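Deliverable D5.2: sample structural annotation.
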Amino acid sequence: MPELVLESNGRTWTLDPSRSYALGRDPQGELVFDDARVSWRHATITFDGRSWVVEDHGSTNGTFVHGQRVQRMELGAGSVLNLGNANDGPRVDLTGVQAPAGTPQAQPQQQPYAAQGANAGWAQQAPAQQPPQQVP
């Protein structure tokens, strides 16, 4: 089961797929956002056995994925959540997770040889090298 890493306002959370995480202003929640546009129990992020999912709990101002208001949506690496406002509500960036099944960002089958160091697993394939040209 893949871990999900959330980053927001300089804070980082690594989520365990065996449990769910409440997002909101409630200090008893797992991810607390001190912003009036965020509802007390705004949304939940869970792993449903197949993919990570965000579900809005009827929040007043909404949950947005890539600027689109959603009630429930699968999440993938590179997803961006905004709570309470699509443009400037608290932003949550997602990394370290496989993309939802069937998307072009699906998990790579094999890392390219160049995928080492800090970007291992998420590096892009290097362009093929041209053979050296012979000088007459």
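Annotation notes: The radius of gyration is 19 Å. The chain is about 0% helix and 35% strand.
The annotation will be released with the project's public dataset once the embargo ends.
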